[in-house]
Amino acid sequence: MPGQNDKVDQKQELPKETSLYLWSSDVFDRFETLLKKVGSGEERVSDLSALVFEVCEGKISPEMFASSVLDFGLQEEKAKELVKSVYLEILLKIVKDLPFDVRREIASLGGGEVAQHAEEKFDVAMYVKAYVAGLPGGHEERLRQRLEVTLLSYLQGTLSREQAKEKLQHPIKLGGLEITSEVAEEVLGNFDKDKEGKEFVGKMHEAVLTPPAPSLVRGGTVRDDEKEIEEVKQKVASVIEAPAPTDIPAVVKMICDYDAFGFDDPLLNDRCKKIVESRVREVRDATLARAQFERSVDKGGLGVSGRRLADILERLETVVSLYEKAQVERHAEGKTLAVQERQKARDAKTEAVKNEETNLDKRFKDLVGDVAIDTQKMRGAIEGAKQASSKAPKVFSPTMQEIAFEKRLTGPVDELRRMTLIEFRRLSRDPVQAATKIKDKVGILEEQGYDKKIEGVKAWRSSPLNSLYLKLTHEALLGGKGIKEVIEEYANKKEETLTVDEYHAVAAINGELRF
């Protein structure tokens, strides 16, 4: 073991992407594997993770880290092997962000040759997550996650640049961000500039959904686990070859038919299906769905972890992605068919008019023959008809004052669905008070039942006011601008816009009105 010097290096704050990498599920899985290899229980994963984070921040020295690992009940050689594996397989990837020389520590543990030839690379998933988190703009988590998925697929090579651009332009209801071609081009251009010159791990270079061949560093050599690669390929192929899902029940069945989703307890099976359905319907995003699978059974979850959790999430997100793609294709096909049907109807109407005119001309000639028309007599007949019309009694028509309008009654759901900026301001001059009244309307619906609350929240989300809020948020998020700047631009162009206080009030409403 290295010396037991308790001197702590200078403390430092880790970059955001590095912190996300250290707390990622992939790193936790590696901790679990390394602990099993040296004969320690997986209950030590959290302790090992906390120690690694502290040594990376400089709160403890590498010597203190090594001595703390001995407290796991390991023999010195096993503890030494665990520490070296952590340095080699986890910390070597973030060597430039560490407050100590990790290569020197590896060399002291007998792994100098590997340390000298190892390359510094970014974890692809953590890089994309940190990049999107650093973008300015609104706080619509669902849209940020969609942007993360698109950029990650683009960076990994599973989407071409044109495919990524097209996906960003898809309607929000179909899994996109509903932005223009110009804005999508700007988003991808900024991303290209940021990733330029960086090297990544976990990057796929094959076709869509083809898994990369995993490799682990072992004593300076690379070992490919061919069996695991083949199993992953077979699982992915089984999903791709299956018929494209057409509706939500079919998607849920397609996902839950997979072995990893089966539970002995019927209650847990039913709970699992509800979690899957909420993900497919986008009531939960990928992160919330994962949290629900991991949550303990007594707290409403399923208590899934480890390899089974990874298999569940892989199957779930793969099928959801296929379903969203099918929805986009059906939407595009439906629009094309609708345009074709309208054109056919117009052509048929034009043809009918032409046929009618031809038939009338033919019938007229059959009745009167080819006779010359006396223009003078025709003018006289027209003038006589005008005079007779002027002498005819006038028909009474009611004035506006005589028409009684029926007052239309609306409930909270209709009020939320029709909420405009003008109506919002009529509720109160204070945006906070107006927001409170909107939340009160949803509260009234919740008293009538949870289904009513969901109906109210959906009505609010489809309102013109919320659409305006989302529009401002998109421009700020994807244009790299502050929301205040976007609002000022709208005001200068004399376009309808929220004030900064109103924007924050609507954001607060969206933060609280959830299912």
Describe this structure as you would to a colleague.
Helices cover about 65% and strands about 0% of the residues. The chain is mainly α and about 525 residues long. The strands form 2 sheets. The protein has a two-stranded parallel ribbon with strand order 1-2. It starts with 15 loop residues before the first helix and ends with a helix. Mean pLDDT is about 75; it is low at about 1-10, about 115-120, about 205-225 and about 400-405.
**H/E series:** HHHHHHHEHHHHEEEHHHHHHHHHHHHH
Over all CA atoms, what is the radius of gyration?
33 Å
Q: What distance separates the N and C termini?
A: 53 Å
| Percent helix | 55-70%
Shape: elongated
The class by helix and strand makeup works out as mainly alpha
The mean pLDDT is: 76
Flag low-confidence runs. 1-9, 113-119, 203-225, 400-407
Number of helices: 24
> Can you count the beta strands?
4
Into which percentage range does the β-strand content fall? Answer: under 5%
SSE diagram, text form:
Blueprint: H1 16-22, H2 25-37, H3 45-57, H4 62-70, H5 76-89, H6 102-108, H7 112-117, E1 122-123, H8 124-133, H9 141-156, H10 161-169, H11 181-195, E2 200-201, E3 215-218, E4 221-224, H12 226-241, H13 248-256, H14 266-280, H15 286-294, H16 306-368, H17 375-391, H18 412-417, H19 421-427, H20 431-447, H21 450-461, H22 464-479, H23 483-492, H24 500-512
Parallel strand pairs: 1-2
Antiparallel strand pairs: 3-4
Helix pairs in contact: 1-8, 2-3, 2-5, 3-4, 4-5, 8-9, 9-10, 10-11, 12-16, 13-14, 14-15, 19-20, 20-21, 20-24, 22-23
